[in-house]
Amino acid sequence: MSFASPERHYPDPAWRGRVIGLSIALLIAWPMLVASEFKPWILCDRQSLRATGHFLGQFLPPAHSSEFLHIVLQATWQTVAMATAGLTLALLGALPLTLIVTESLSISRLGSGHMKMSAFVIRQGARWLLVLLRSVPELVWALIFVRIVGLGPTAGVLAIALTYCGMLGKVYAEILESSDPHATDTLLKNGSGRLAALFYGALPESVSELVSYTTYRWECAIRGSVVMGFVGAGGLGQRMDESMKMMAGGEVATMLIVFVFLVACADGVSKMLRRRLA
Fold it and tell me: How far apart are CA 194 and CA 197, in angstroms?
């Protein structure tokens, strides 16, 4: 008669590292939570729950009069137009900056492997310009442009253009530099220009990632357009701000539904483009 030997349980060899990592994360996170005055238990306070119930109760039923829906439709179209125009201007600025900062498209580094001092200075200047543009949030740019050009979507378009120019230029350069440089180097060594090397060397391998990121940024621009409306940049956000100030919960509910639909449509466009490029 044979007896099966009991299973031996060996300790996880990485448990010490996990415990140490978790402890370090807690040591870092705890002072951050204290400094930010994060107190989620306030949401469970009786007064907070009563205020939440009263606020959400005003959302029903959503406003659906034909006159109001027409106003919402116009504001929605203005929001999409603002996001699209801002992203288009951002692309016009990001593409030449991407050409400058992408090291794999540098002609001066060929042969010696080191780029010339003048090319290095220009590239670093372009990098710092991208850092400056994306460091200032679009909401801050919108506040500045509202003071300069007045209320309306122009401020929102310019704010999106500046912030997203910095974001697109940085990420485009990283995507292009992470692609296989063989085709690009071959074109440049045989006398090709930077644009030709971009379109025939780096772009074919990276086009799917570039399009995916661009459509994602367009979706973010739509969300940003709504937020900037709260500072007077027009669109759906400005209408929502007016309705919230008048405590018109039904109107706010309708605009929130439209906003969710907008983001879902942007996500659908992104998926369709990715399938076509796959």
Answer: 5
**Pairwise CA distance, residues 132 & 151, whole Å:** 25
The model's pTM is: 0.75
How far is 123 from 113, CA to CA, in rounded Å?
Answer: 16
* Neighbour-count burial for 127-139, b at 16+ CB within 10 Å, e otherwise: bebbeebbeeebb
- Contacts of residue 15, defined as CB under 8 A and 6 or more positions apart, other chains included, come to none
pLDDT, one tens digit per residue, over 54-102 is 777 777 788 778 888 888 888 888 888 888 999 999 999 988 888 888 7
Residue 115 lies in a domain: yes
Q: Domain tally for the chain? A: 1
pLDDT digits (tens, 9 = 90+) for 134-178: 888 888 888 888 888 887 888 888 999 999 999 998 888 888 877
CATH number, domain at 205? 1.10.3720.10
- In whole angstroms, what is the distance from residue 105 CA to residue 101 CA? 8
- Residue 101 is predicted with a pLDDT of 80
The domain in which residue 183 lies consists of 66-277
Cα 5 to Cα 66: distance, rounded to the nearest angstrom: 77
CA distance linking residue 82 with residue 158, whole number of Å: 9
Question: Would you give the DSSP letter of residue 201?
Answer: I
Per the listing, tokens 């949401």 go with 43
**Residue 33 domain flag:** no
